[in-house]
Amino acid sequence: MSKTILITGGSGFLGSNLCKKLIQDENIKIICVDNNYSGSFENVSDLSNNPRFKFIEHDVIYPLEINEKIDEIYNLACPASPVWYQGDKAIFTTKTCVLGAINMLELAKKNNAKILQASTSEVYGEPLVHPQNENYRGNVNPIGIRACYDEGKRCAESLFFDYNRIFGVKIKVIRIFNTYGPMMDSKDGRVVSNFICQALKNEDLTIYGNGSQTRSFCYVDDLIDAIIKTMATNDDFLGPINLGNPDEFTINELAQLVKEKINNNLNITYNPLPADDPTQRKPDITLAKKILNWEPKVKLSQGLDRTIEYFAKKINPKENK
Ligand code: UDP
């Protein structure tokens, strides 16, 4: 049976990977929606000739009218890295989270569509529980510089559950932990893309703070599999569900690994730690293992190799053809 799937944030890092995966199913039609603020149409331009793919430039802050029946919505639209979501973009980020959720939930309600919300490990803030499971309610600074994103995503979760309780909208809430891989933007300022691009350009690697903070990095293909599996769960499963790779690394360990892979002679520059930067982060994925029968397959070393290959071609397209 054919299905029409709408993906907001469809030309971003995760959205474009999701579009490319879903379009492989010939029964699926994709409507990709993006304002191209932190995403880029270029990420999905290879799909533009496919008759089952449509791109709509639109900002989810505003209501969206679609003249065909939609079966599923993946709501991924939001600047997701600190350099894109903070500073003078903070109010825009909150609006994207909150108004974007309302507008997409309204669209789901009208279409009787299933809707999945891309929430985040940031709802746990500076966690006092380690690893973080879905019952942990988090420790977010509501007035800090990350709050526009963290609180915006928390409010979106609450809107999803209220639309389910009040209108019976079929919802799924996933909490995505740090993810990396091809289609990441080199200007994102994320630690993986920064380190790889710096190393490929023979620049110092920039560590913020002393590098003892931890993150658990999930390769994008693993994450996309989990997202699609979550959408396919029974209607009575709403989430929230943690999706990520529980293998935890310090930022120092990550820098060492990137150096070993690209150039061991590179220097490291230590810069100040940004405010409210979480000290530790690691998902408890017991629920995902049980409900989705899923766990990540790609080890960090292997995923870094694939990501390095991607950025090497981007940075030096001629030499790497
Ligand atoms: N980070 C770093 N150097 C960089 C970019 C980031 O040391 O060039 C640190 C950052 O302070 C944080 C961690 O790496 O502690 C992960 O940062 P990222 O922005 O990738 O993800 P998030 O903080 O949203 O988890």
Task: Describe the protein in words.
- This protein has 321 residues and is α/β, with parallel strands linked by helices.
- The protein has a domain at 3-180 and 219-243: Rossmann fold.
- The protein has helices spanning 13-22, 82-85, 90-111, 147-167, 191-200, 220-231, 251-262, 286-292, 300-315; strands at 3-8, 28-34, 53-57, 72-75, 114-120, 170-176, 179-180, 205-208, 214-216, 218-219, 241-243, 248-250, 268-271.
- The strands form four sheets. A seven-stranded parallel beta sheet has the order 3-2-1-4-5-6-11, with helices on both faces.
- Helix 1 (13-22) links the parallel strand 1 (3-8) and strand 2 (28-34).
- The N and C termini lie far apart (40 Å).
- The mean pLDDT is 96.
- It binds uridine-5'-diphosphate.
What brief labels describe this structure?
7-stranded parallel β-sheet, globular, single chain, binds uridine-5'-diphosphate, 321 residues, Rossmann fold, alpha/beta
